[in-house]
Amino acid sequence: MPRTRSALPATGPVRLGPDSRAALRPAAAGIDTGFWQARRASNAHVSIPQGPALLEAAGNLHNLRLAAGTAAGEFQGAYPFVDTDVYKWLEAAAWQLAQAPDGAQVPDGAQVPDGAQAPDGAQAPHGAQAPDRDQVPGDVQAPDGAQAPHGAQAPVRDPAPNQDAAPNQAPAPDADLAAEVGRIVDLVAGAQQPDGYLNTWFQLVKGGERYKDLRWGHELYCAGHLIQAAVAHHRATGSGELLDVARKFADHIDSVFGPPGSGRPIDGIDGHPEVETALVELYRETGERRYLDLATYFVDRYGHGLLGGEAYCQDRVPLREATNVEGHAVRQLYLLAAAADLATETGDAELRTAAERLWHAMTTTKTHLTGGLGAHHEEEDFGDPYELPNERAYCETCAAIASIQWSWRMALLTGEARYSDLIERTLFNGFLAGVSLDGERWLYVNPLQVRDGHTDPGGDQSARRTRWFRCACCPPNVMRLLASLEHYLASSDDNGLQIHQYVSGRYASDLAVVRSETDYPWHGTIALTVEETPAEPWTLSLRIPQWCRDFRVRCGQETYEGPVTDGWLRLERTWSPGDQVVLELSLEPRLTAADPRVDAVRGCVAIERGPLVYCLEGVDHPGGGLDDIVIDATRPLAVKHRPDLLGGVTTVVAAGSRRHLPDAGWWPYAPVDESPASPQQDGEAVELTAVPYYAWANREDGSMRVWLPTS
Amino acid sequence: MPRTRSALPATGPVRLGPDSRAALRPAAAGIDTGFWQARRASNAHVSIPQGPALLEAAGNLHNLRLAAGTAAGEFQGAYPFVDTDVYKWLEAAAWQLAQAPDGAQVPDGAQVPDGAQAPDGAQAPHGAQAPDRDQVPGDVQAPDGAQAPHGAQAPVRDPAPNQDAAPNQAPAPDADLAAEVGRIVDLVAGAQQPDGYLNTWFQLVKGGERYKDLRWGHELYCAGHLIQAAVAHHRATGSGELLDVARKFADHIDSVFGPPGSGRPIDGIDGHPEVETALVELYRETGERRYLDLATYFVDRYGHGLLGGEAYCQDRVPLREATNVEGHAVRQLYLLAAAADLATETGDAELRTAAERLWHAMTTTKTHLTGGLGAHHEEEDFGDPYELPNERAYCETCAAIASIQWSWRMALLTGEARYSDLIERTLFNGFLAGVSLDGERWLYVNPLQVRDGHTDPGGDQSARRTRWFRCACCPPNVMRLLASLEHYLASSDDNGLQIHQYVSGRYASDLAVVRSETDYPWHGTIALTVEETPAEPWTLSLRIPQWCRDFRVRCGQETYEGPVTDGWLRLERTWSPGDQVVLELSLEPRLTAADPRVDAVRGCVAIERGPLVYCLEGVDHPGGGLDDIVIDATRPLAVKHRPDLLGGVTTVVAAGSRRHLPDAGWWPYAPVDESPASPQQDGEAVELTAVPYYAWANREDGSMRVWLPTS
C-alpha cells in the first residue's frame, strides 16, 4: 500500500530494527489538548526548565566539570549513579525538543465530542502552591531562577528543522532548551575519559578504579542512561555529539565485558540492569549488531551468581527459569524490558515466553490497583505473591515507568491489548501521582494509604511531596516519560492502525492519519476522524479497556458493541477522509474488590471510574480521621465535575459513615463476640468525596486512603 | 511485721533504691518444673554454653584481645556495637550462675494440681533437629564444641556461696560456666583504656576517636550493656571485677557528658538509648547518686535535636511531650524503661505520667497480638497507629525483651496488673518465638505470617531460624532474659505478696513463701501452698489475666470469682503453713478479632488459648497453601494435647475450608459484583491444626499465619 505524505516514523523510544519480530510497529502520535496536554505543559514549562538549575544545585553538573578538569572542589552527592540524573534530564529535554509547541488549539471546525464542558484540565495547573516546607536535600537550595512559571504561556519558539517530526507536530524546539541541552552535552563529553569510560563517582571518588564493585557500582547502569539519552538526542535533533560519547563508552564496555573465552577481561553484569535495553536501542539507532549481542550476553548472565546470587540484583535465578518477578522492582523491570527487546529483535522464543509468564505472574499477584509495583521499602523489593500493603506500598515512581517501558515492548511484540491496559492504569495512577500538579514536587514512593496520625520520616521515602531527592532517580524519569508520551499511544501493522491510548490529538500510521477529540478520562466519548487514508481498505483497531464493561462504537450509520478480540475492537473497511468513528466508553463509577488472597484489603472496596483509581483525602473530610470511615457499598455512587478542584477533576461522591468505637481499654484485641457493634448501625453519616489518586497530596498534608472498609 | 527466715532480696535486675516510690518491690521466685523450666533448660544447657564459642567464631572476643594488645589481626564484625554481644552474654551467664540447678524435682508430697497428665514440657526439647542450612554469617563457623547437648541432664554443679540466692535456689553455679565468665571478664577488663573508655570498634577501627558520631557510634549503648552485665555479675557472684570496669567507664562518661555550663565538654546523647536504665541500676548497686543524675540528664536531652531531630533516635520530641511511641522500637523501649526507672527512683510525676500515657498509646495502637512491637523493617520503626502488618511485622526479638523490661518497671511503679498482662503475652508469644525449641537457632524478626511462595532474603531479617546473626543483638538478649526470668514473676509490698506470672516453683516475699504447682499454660489450674508465713494477716494477690473471661479461686472451703481490682484478686487473711489456694483459669480456646482500625486483619480471626497465640503452619496442612484457607468461625474449637509434637504442645483444632478460586485472568481486581463466590460455599473442607506461635518454624520451612480469614 502507498504511504501517505504524513506517515513518518516515530521519533521516540523503541524504534524497531529491520529484523524485528514485533507484531506491531510504533506509530506516530501527537497530543494537542486535554488531560495529558495539561500534564505535559507542566513538564515542558516547569519540570524540564527547572532541571539544569536543580542539577547544578545538587552538584551533578559540578561533578562533570570536576571530571573534565575544568573546575575544582569535592564530588557532590551520595551515590555512584548521580550522573544518571543528568542523562535522564537530557533524554527528557531531547524528547521535548522534538515536540510541537504545547497549548496548540484544536483546529477550527473540530467538534467537541460531548455536550458537557471539558474540565479545565488543559490549563496550567493551579491550586497547588508549592509550600516552602521541603528543602532540597543535601543542603541544596533551589535557585531562584528555578521557580515555576505558574500558568505561564509557552514561550514563542524558534522553528528548527526536524525530519522525524510527526505530521501534527510543528517542528519548533525551544531555543533556550536547545542551548541548555548543548551546554550539558558538552559537559558530559568533557568528562569522558579518552578510552570512553565515564562515571564521575569512580573517576573522582574511587581514584579511577573501575568495575571492581559491579554489585553496587552502577557503572553499566549509568552507561545505559547515557546511551538512552544519546539515542534520544540523536533522534530528536539529528546531532551526533552525544551519540558519539555513548558509542565510545559502549565500545569500551564491549571491549571489557564478555563470556569466558571471549578474550574480554571481565565476565560480569551490573547490579542494576539498565544498560541492556539501552544497548538494544543503540543497536537500533546505529545498526551495529554487536550492541545487540552484548545486551544478549548481559541478560543471560543474570541469575547465575556472578553478583552473589541475590534476588535484589536479579541474580538468584535466570529469567528463563523464573516463575515470578522478584527482588528490587526497578531492576527486575528494566531487565524484563530488555528481555522483551531481545525477543523482539532476535526472535528468542524462550525469552518471549519467560517475559509473558512473568508479566502474567506480576499482574496477577504483585501489582497494586494503581499499577504500582514493589511492596517493600526495604530493598525496594517486590515482596511475596499477594503481599500488597497499602500504607507501606513502595510503588516507586521509577518502577511505574519501568513497567510502562516493559509493557509497551510486550504490546508491540505480541500485539495483545492487555499490555496497554496495564500501561493506561499505570499512567493515570501509579505513575502520574509521582509528580505534583504544578510539576515542581515529587513522590518517590506512592503509598495507597496515609494513616491518621502518620509520622512522616521525611527524606526520599516521604509520603509528602518533596522538591528534589538525594537519590533523584524519579523526577527526570517522569520528565522523560511525559516528554515522550506520544510514543506509547498507537501502533501500526500491515493491516492498519491500533489506538492504544485515547488522547486529544492525532495518530499516524504508515497508512493513515486519524484525528482524535476527547475529554477522556473525564468523559467517555472519543471522536475519531480519518484525515488521511489510502484508497485500499485497512483496519482501525480500538483498544477496549480491560476495566470497561459497557461501550459502543458508532461508525457512520452502524453501531458496534463487539466483538473484542485480544482486547481489540477491529474496524476493517475502506476509509475516506472525513469518516468519523465515535467510541463511547461507559464511565459509570464502580466499586472494586480484590482477589481474596490480597489480605491487605479484605473487606474493603476501592472507587474507580474509567481508568482512574480514586482515593479519599483527609482534607475533604474534616471533623475526624479517615481511618474511622466506612463506605456503604449498597448505596449508589454519584459523579460531580469540579473545575475548581485540583486543576479540574471529576469527583465521585459516596455514602459512608464514621464509626463510633467504644473505649475498649488498653488492648485492641478481643473475643469475636465482644467486638464493637456494626459501625453502620451506630456511626454518623458522612458524605465521602473521592478524588483521583493521581491528584492526591497536592493540598495540605494529611491522611489518604484508596481502599475503604465496607464494615 | 517480722521477716521470715527465707525472705531475702531478689538477685535479678531492678533492685529498687532506698528512696524508691515503687508501689511494689520485686520478690524472689524460683522455677523448678513445667513449661518455663523446659525453656530455661535449653537456655542453660545449650544457648548459654554455646555462647563463648560463637562469640569467638564471630570475632567478638578476638576484638577484645586486639584492644588489649594481646593478639594481632583485624577487627572483626560490621558494627560499632559488637562488644555488646559479649556483655549481654556475660549478663546471661551471671544470672545463670545465680540459678538453682534446673531440672529440680517437685518435692515429695506435692500434689499435681490437675488430673490430666502434664505434657512433656519439662523435657529437653526435641523434634527440632538443627538443619545445616544456615551458616553462621560472616564466614563464622559454629565450632564443633558448640553442638547442643540434646536432652543432656544438668551437670553436677559445685556449690558456691551466694548470699543473695532466693530460698528455693540452692547455690550451685556451674564451675565451667564460672570459669568461662571469669575468662571473658578478664578479656573485657584487659581491653579497657586507662581512663575507663572501652569500645573496640572505636579503639581499633576509628583510631581511638571518641564521641564524634554519637548518632551511630553506640559508645554509650555499649557502656550500658557493660554496666548491666557488671551489675548482674556483682549481684550473682559477689565479684567486683567487672563492676570496677563498668564504674570506671561510667565515671569517664560522667566526666565527659553534661549540660552546658556543667564543665563537661560534651552536651550529648547516644543514638541508641540504653545507658540510661543501666546507670539507674548502677546507682542502685553502688548507691552513687551521680549515676542517677547522669541518667536523668540523658533521658531529658532526647527530643531536643541534639542528634538531628530524628524519630529514629528518639530525638524528635521529648518523652514528656510525646503522645505515642515512635521511631526505632528498641531505642524507644529502652528509653522508656529508663523513664520508668527514673520515675521510680526520683518520684518524677511528669515522667511517670508520660510513661503511662505512652504505654497506653502503644498497647492500644501499635502492639501486635503476640506482644510484638515494630511494624517496619525499614529503620526498625514502630510505624503509624494501627499499622500492624502480618507478613512484614518486624517485631524484633529485642523489642519484645525491651517491652518486658519496661512493663516490669511500670508494674512495680504503679502496682497495676495490666503491665504484667502484657509481659505474659509477650513472654509466651512475641519473645519466646525468638529462640528455637532446641536453643540453637534464632529469629531476629517475628512475623505473624509467612506467605505461600515466600522468597526468603536470608540474613538477619530472615523468616527462617538462623544459627547466629551478623547483628547478633537478639540471641544473648534472649539468654539474659530467660536466665533471669524468675525475677519478673512476683512482687511484694507491706501488705503481702503479688503473683504476676504463674509457674511451677516458689514465690518468696519479705513475709512469706508460697509454693506453686501447675501445668500452665497447658492446664489452667494453679495450686498454691503457703509454706512459710508470719502470724499476722497478709494479702496474697493473684493476677487474673486480661484474656481470662472465667476463673475461680478455691481457698479452703471458700470459692471466689471476684472482685478483681486493677487486675488483682486479693486474698487477705491470716495464713498458716500448708494453706492451699487453687486458682482455676478457664482455658477455653477462643477466636479473637482486632479493633477495626487494624486494617491488616480485617475479616480475620486469630486462635488463642490462655496466654498463647496460635498459628497455622503449612507443614500441618499438606495439599495446598495456607493463603487459600478460610476458617469457619461458627464451628466450635477443639483442644488436643500432643505430647509428641514440638516438645509437647496443646493444639487447637478448627473447621475450615480451602477456597476454589476461579481463574480471574491477569488482573486480580474486579467490580464487587463480579468477585469470587463465597469460599465456604464452594471450598473443600479442611481440618485446621493450630500450634502455639512460639513453637513455629521448628520443623521444615514453609508458610505460617496467625490471622485467618473468616470469608
Description:
The structure is a homodimer of 711-residue chains. Chain A contains 16 helices and 23 strands. Chain A has helices at residues 35-58, 60-68, 83-97, 175-191, 200-204, 214-217, 219-237, 241-256, 275-286, 289-301, 329-346, 349-365, 397-414, 418-431, 474-483, 679-682, and strands at residues 25-26, 28-33, 449-450, 490-493, 496-499, 504-508, 513-518, 525-532, 538-543, 551-555, 558-560, 568-573, 580-585, 590-594, 604-609, 612-617, 629-631, 638-642, 649-658, 669-671, 684-692, 704-705, 707-709. Chain A is globular, with a radius of gyration of 25 Å. Residues 1-9 and 102-173 of chain A have low confidence and may be disordered. Strand 20 of chain A pairs antiparallel with strand 15 of chain B, so a sheet runs across the interface.
Brief overview:
Two copies of one chain form a homodimer. With 711 residues, chain A is α+β, with helices and mostly antiparallel strands.
